[in-house]
Amino acid sequence: MQQTEQRIASQSADSISVRIGELVDQASDRSEFLKSLASELVVHFQTGIVAIHTSEWTNPMMLVLDDVLSQQIERAAIIDLLETATRSPIACSIGRIGDQSPTRGLRVELTESPNRAALMLVYPHDQMPTGTDQIRDLQRLGTYADCTRKLIDTLPIVNVPVGESEAVQTNAGDSETSSDTSRERSLISPANADQLTSADQRSLRSFHSDLNLDATGYRIANESRRMLQCDRVTVLIPRKGKFKVVAASGVAVVDRRSNSVRAIEKLTQAAVVLSRPLVVPTTDPLPPQIQQPLDHYLDESDVMSSVILPLHGKSQKENQDNDQENVIDVDPFGSEGEIVGVLVLEYFSGNSPSGIGPAMTTIASEATLALANSTEHRNVFGLKLWKTVGTAISKTKAPIAGAVGLIVAGLIAASAIIQVDHHVIATGKIEPTIRREVFASVDGTVKQLHVVDGQDVKKGDLLLTLENADLESQAESLAGEIQTATQRLASMSAVRLSENSMDNSGSRSSSSRLAMEERQLKSELANLRQQQEIVRTQMKTLSVSAPIDGTVIGWQLERRLLDRPVGRGNLLISVVDDNGPWSLKLNIPDDDAGPVIESNHVSGESEIEFAVATLPSSTFKAEMQSIATAARLDSRGQHVIDAEANVSIDVDSQKTGSDFDAFDPSMMRSGADVTAKIKCGRRSILRSWFGDVFDFVHRNVLFYF
Q: Where would one find coiled-coil regions in this protein (predicted)?
């Protein structure tokens, strides 16, 4: 308060004159200027009430910042004092209801008759100014009045009918805001707020121009921005449990991936939980579920303040009551119905209203009805189809429409009778039937690679050589142990022979001991030789050979295998016989497997027509060989049933004019993708072409009855 008083006291008459000039330039007529002047005075004088009476209005109007004072003041006393105001500012006492002591005020006549205007300032109920304060304020009020008289005659006069004297209630705690903010609260009575101009009425009617939801949201956003004088209006509607931006004023196409759009959607999703209008930022504490997305929204959008208006449609009970009373109005903020949309009014300059005014309520009510009707229209089942049929009938004559109907009915009947071959589409790969995978028998490192991808080999040809340091070390160790044991055995045999050649003077016990040691050593030597044989067998597996005649299959073998460690059981190389028979490895969708299984059970085999990705213009023939008895999940997470089919490569069967091309194994690549059509007997055209629809109805509708 002390800082405000110092600022007011330091303001010169020149600065007041400049400020009055700015207000005159911004106003379109005398009434608008007087409202702006009242907002200016209420800030600079720190008053509780500003009252104005002018010839354009039938009754005085007041701007109230002190709610307590507005309940205590005698309105008749204010009217009398305004009528007796003079060109010179005068201090006065205003009576209050009951036994309370009068409060103090200042009054002055701004202009004389016939376009007379008078103004009064009333001090707050808890403030009794001193004589010095009143003298200072009178001088300043006189300066404002003098400057106003010099410029107000340049403004046109617009007569505005006003009902009973009313007051606009504002928050006294906001009195320290700038004059621009105070002016935004404009001195308008509720009786005058609903009297929209003819242009505004046309704008409100345009909300209901059509029932296209996107177009309705676009009109609401742009027209509301113009009528409410805010910087931007964004319209959001609920979709699948979340609020999505459908339109923003001044923007033809909304980029839903932008950070600002995502931020406003998150804020709206959190704010609608309160189920009431919300002005943000606010001095009241907000739950963290709202405060966090609010902070993020303010950072992303650079908005100073916003007003979030959830639009509640009518509840079922309200609809019944209104139908009985023939009422189509709706209270967007007081209804108990579901939220049909949200309006977000954004202000980049900070001049946002402190509350929800009558204009906002009126616009929100019309927007609620428009969005509710558009949403209901969009949710009509088969709307586009019925509109197309209706348009066609309306543009043609009845006989033509009847003929078209008969033709359509005939086509439907024919499609239910005419039988066609039914096919099921499956995907998979093609590869030679004779295929051998070569795995590592022992752990080791690939030391040498003797083949390349696509090389023809014979059974037993060396493919690659492994190296295992442990086996080599073990073989050397066993060879040394065997040599040592052999030498010991030879020495022991020599000793026994020498003892046998001597007389019987030797000990019999020594001979027995040597015999026992000799037997034990022979046993150890036999065991070592068995281990050596096992090691030799394992070392033979280090040389990997081709298991069959065929072609080596393996991409970038040298880069993938050479000098790289492999473990026992790792796949090394594949060898296929590409000159022999070929087969298809198919994955049949679980939903479509029924007709395939049924056809295979009845006929024992199913004809397959397939195309290879590497030869898309050619069509080949195959026959179903086997179908798995269980489904599995493929890499895409879909349930499939594996099947195998033999490719027909009998050239003699490829007759001239056949639908199939001759299968040439030399043109194929093992593992190439194929798309196959499996013939599953005959069905009606309707059942074959729309089988998915029939299956869906049986599984999700008829199954439950």
A: none
